């Protein structure tokens, strides 16, 4: 099941795109003026993680499929539903937290180079594992 959701921050300067292509799900923070990708964050895996990276597919432009060595116990969400996604934006549109079923699953923070995800168990090319401290700080500041 493919999912594509787009949300704009309040001032329209940034958009967040959520994409699930059936084998990998990511969030992309995009500058609306230039159309350039600012940052991304891994969301979840709609399939069981693989043993090895899909290097040939990645070379062709396909987002990577999560591999077992980086996956957390909550990495897989099968048959995700668009209606269950939500986005918490910072006031300035430079940070966002992605919710699924009203629970945070991933985040992009202005102060951090890479995204954070509950689907990740260790830091890798997919991003960083979830940080409760950063989320609490974001939540106290913007929510």
**Strand proportion:** 25-35%
**Number of helices in the DSSP assignment:** 2
Question: What's the story with the biggest beta sheet?
Answer: 5 strands, mixed
- Average of per-residue pLDDT values: 94
The strand line-up of the biggest sheet is 5-6-7-8-9
- The residue ranges in which pLDDT falls below 50 over 5 or more consecutive positions are none
- Share of helix, binned: 10-25%
Q: What is the molecular shape?
A: globular
Please describe what this structure looks like.
It is globular, with a radius of gyration of 14 Å. By secondary structure, it is mainly beta. It is 11% helix and 34% strand. It has a five-stranded mixed β-sheet with strand order 5-6-7-8-9, with no helix packed on it. Strands 1-2-3-4 form a four-stranded antiparallel β-sheet, with no helix packed on it. A hairpin with a 5-residue loop joins strand 3 (25-31) and strand 4 (37-44). The chain has one domain (3-142). The chain has helices spanning 55-59, 132-142; strands spanning 3-8, 14-20, 25-31, 37-44, 85-89, 96-100, 103-108, 116-117, 128-129. The protein is built from two helices and nine strands, in the order E-E-E-E-H-E-E-E-E-E-H.
